[in-house]
Amino acid sequence: MDSRQLRYFLAVVDNGSVTRAAEILYVAQPALSQSLRALEAELGTALFRRVPRGMELTPAGAALVGPARQVVQSSRRVDETVRGLVALERGWLDLACPSDLAVDPLTSLVARFRLLHPGIRINVVDPGPNADSSTVLRSARCEVGIDYLPLDESKLATHLLGRRRLLLGLPAGFDRTPAATFPIESLAELPLVAGARGSVVRDELERVCVQHGFTPHVVVEVEHEHNVHLLVAAGAGAAFLTEPEARHAERRGLQVVRTEPELGRDFGLVFRTGPLSPAALAFVTFVTASSERFEDT
């Protein structure tokens, strides 16, 4: 087998179908299918089974994903070196980042990094709900990421960038006496909208409430937390919002208050401790050398 076959295999894995993978790779679909068949013949086993919605990995295919990513990434590093990409004239950086950090701070970091290295193309990968960057870094799909800290992963290095403060959004017409802060104890009977357990905001909410002797009264649970403010606006309940979401909610007429104690999570750069590609190493060096801190105000 060669790295091209493995690259085609991973494209089908990441896109769910041969048709979509061929479009992404700019290759003819028959050529991609033939490459997959040749790889399966060489390995002596099927890697995919066809299902109504596309392609599904067999157990053998699932076992191949991790080693395949490592081979493709190693091949890319060799190609970068041979083509003079150590000088960062060209390159590719796969960067993991959850959606709520992709606007701030990622936008600013990527824009300034691209000014320094315009030849490097960047692919931002969202780990998905109830996951973090350590998942895609362990799978070798990415080498670096921006994520909430701390991460439960001993083989990753981190660099603190700032803190994401959480504010409490209250539905329009909520009857409360104006005050500087909203005491956490008052959440005990307040109907709340929150993400699923395992998500960043929900875990922080559960942790603080348990510390104060009660369980949060979650009446609506959503998979994607960035839609929570829409449910608050519709009157479904109150919810904790990130700073950008809170400002958007205020423009929709919602009350936004600080809590006592305040909820929030640190976030920062996350990267693998082993050898990095030139592009990944350049990004880590750029971010860690910067004195900029990203703080909600």
**Average pLDDT over all residues:** 85
Query: Which CATH class of one domain?
Result: Alpha Beta
Query: Helical stretch count?
Result: 11
Low-pLDDT residue spans: none
Which class do the helix and strand fractions yield?
alpha/beta
Radius of gyration over alpha carbons?
23 Å
- Beta content: 25-35%
Proper CATH architecture of one domain: 3-Layer(aba) Sandwich
Distance between the termini: 54 Å
Task: Describe the largest sheet.
Answer: 9 strands, mixed
The succession of helices and strands, N to C, reads HHHEEHEHHEHEEEEHEHEHEEHE
Question: Which geometry do the CA atoms define?
Answer: globular
Total strand segments: 13
What do you see in this structure?
The model has no long low-confidence stretch (mean pLDDT 85). By secondary structure, the chain is an alpha/beta fold. Among the domains are: 68 residues, Arc Repressor Mutant, subunit A (Orthogonal Bundle), CATH 1.10.10.10; 102 residues, D-Maltodextrin-Binding Protein, domain 2, CATH 3.40.190.
